[in-house]
Amino acid sequence: MxxxxxxxxxxxxxxxxxxxxxxxxxxxxxxxxVAGKDEAKVFDTSMTPTSPRGSGLNDxxxxxxxxxxxxxxxxxxxxxxxxxxxxxxxxxxxxxxxxQRAQLGTGSGVIISSDGYIVTNNHVIEKADELQxxxxxxxxxxxxxxxxxxxxxxxxxxxxxxxQLPYLAFGDSDNTKIGEWVLAVxxxxxxxxxxxxxxxxxKARDLGRNQSFIQTDAAVNPGNSGGALVNTNGDLxxxxxxxxxxxxxxxxxxxxxxxxxxxxxxxxxMEYGNVQKGLLGIQYLNTKTPLAIEKGLDExxxxxxxxxxxxxxxxxxxxxxxxxIKRVDNIKIKKFxxxxxxxxxxxxxxxxxxxxxxxxxxxxxxxxxxxxxxxIIPHLGLEVKNLTDKDKKKFKTKKGVKIVGVxxxxxxxxxxxxxxxxxxDEEINDIEEARTVFGKISRYGKTSITMLDxxxxxxxxxxx
Length: 464
Hints:
The protein is of the alpha+beta class. It has helices spanning 2-25, 63-70, 88-93, 122-125, 259-272, 290-294, 313-316, 336-343, 389-395, 431-440, and strands at 73-84, 99-111, 117-121, 130-134, 140-149, 154-159, 181-186, 194-205, 213-216, 228-231, 236-243, 254-258, 282-284, 303-308, 324-328, 331-332, 351-358, 361-368, 374-376, 383-386, 401-405, 419-423, 426-427, 447-452, 458-463. The chain is 19% helix and 33% strand.
């Protein structure tokens, strides 16, 4: 009995030691579970227990936004007519057997009004001889182009319908946040009403066009162009436009024109027939150039003013070379696309508050945006600008445009700095008229231009 009691006591001690060792060394340990030789380890990296609902994706409801959006997104088919010879005999003998071969292109569009106005990408419709729009209910309509803007890649088209159409309202793209959930809705590969989800990966992304795009990782493929990017409330925050890919298909991220830019372009087309651009009147320094690196400007946050254009709002507000623009209104400026993207939502005569750094001091001034004052005229390639009050007084004229750039071909003609008054006796008042008048001339005929120099003397040159 005594021996049995000793054995029982030893067993109790051994059990206690085993339980204590388990508590101490094993109970709070995170385990790595290996499912197979070629599979990676899976482990919990946080000391905080995870939610049984997952990482939060289940907390977001996409269904309402998706349901409302798919009915307002349409398929846009562009028809480009071409001609081809139907046989080798027709080619040689010209028997009149030429046939038309229609090339079809497909994209997407977003209905923005109940009476049939649709916004899409310019590259979807720019070469089209005919346009067809198919709604989500499979009804098809002929569409006409109302207007387009190649610079922003936004176009406005219209269909005539009976009754009211479902449509999307423009949201405020300035309020989108990096990491916010978004849906891309369109017709990739001619598959109608396709919805993909992702987050806003970046804002004010520049693709080398001095534009400002929303970057997202929602899957976008050929055919999505012109479709809707919406937030979880169903607000239209962008028009899907481009992907960056070596294969031509989605590889992880895509780009959309912000809704504030698209909305402004559409409103300008409907009200003015073209896009009204309000410009600050500065040139900026690319901080990645050797010159910027040499001056130690490659690490600045903001837009470095390298030149202030004469007669523009920036000059009138006394912005100077070397100023660093940090904010416009309530928009923080970290790089040039932040600035250009915000100004793309403005028109001439709009006023903005510009905050900049000069010699360590922060200064805020109001700046009135103005129309572009210079342009390159067709055929001759001269750069001309509208006359300032100072120019009008100096040259004693109220009409004409000043020549401020001359291509190498015409450097020996003494054109620089003179006022161009007329072309083939047709008067010119501003740069818009200059572009129109020069656009009419023939490359193969004679063209005469009349100029005025600083002494008030008129000169006439004839180009052949």
